[in-house]
Specification:
168 residues, single chain, alpha+beta, Nuclear Transport Factor 2, Chain: A, 2 domains, 6-stranded mixed beta sheet
Length: 168
């Protein structure tokens, strides 16, 4: 895991905040950045990533390795739980997710029926319902649950990865 240092950190305008929120809202139905005029939202670079931060927390990745759309981070999902794109895994999948593994269908206990192949999805564990990873669906939601084998989600961000660790 690379050590990512924040560089070129600077405040962004209210219009830029609203635009980023709209882009995230299109994918998961949340607006993770505060839009009140008093909130300081900053843009920064860290390695290959362009990031948006609020109070030192990376909440949105605008671009970077494996990211081509404005995407919320797990820290954003801890504050804002989307109704869309949720996938639940059994506790046996949790250690693998923490190590950055993709999600296999046999570990999935539930998935949003509206998920389609290619959609941005977020993964929670069945016991604590805490966000563990964000990735792209490789199959539709119902197929994730019904399949007895195969990869269902390609994970790009998980608890403990380089994005999670920025600013710690």
């Amino acid at each position: 895991m690379a050590d990512l240092t924040l560089k070129n950190r600077h405040p962004i305008s209210g219009d830029d905040i609203r635009e980023a929120n709209e882009r995230v809202d299109d994918h998961l139905g949340i607006r993770p950045l505060p839009e009140d005029g008093d909130a300081l939202v900053e843009k920064a670079r860290a390695g290959p990533y362009e990031l948006l931060l609020h109070e030192g927390n990376v909440l949105v990745v605008l671009e970077g390795s494996d990211v081509d759309e404005a995407t919320p981070t797990l820290r954003a999902l801890l504050q804002h739980r989307p109704a869309e794109g949720r996938v639940t895994v059994d506790m046996g999948a949790v250690p693998h997710l923490r190590n950055g593994a993709d999600v296999m269908s046999p570990g999935i206990t539930d998935a949003d029926d509206a998920i389609q192949d290619g959609d941005l999805v977020w993964v929670v564990d069945i016991e604590h319902e805490q966000p563990l990873g964000i990735g792209h669906a490789l199959v539709d939601g119902p197929e994730m649950v019904d399949a007895s084998s195969g990869k269902a989600i390609s994970i790009w961000h998980h608890v403990g990865d380089e994005i999670w660790s920025i600013g710690e």
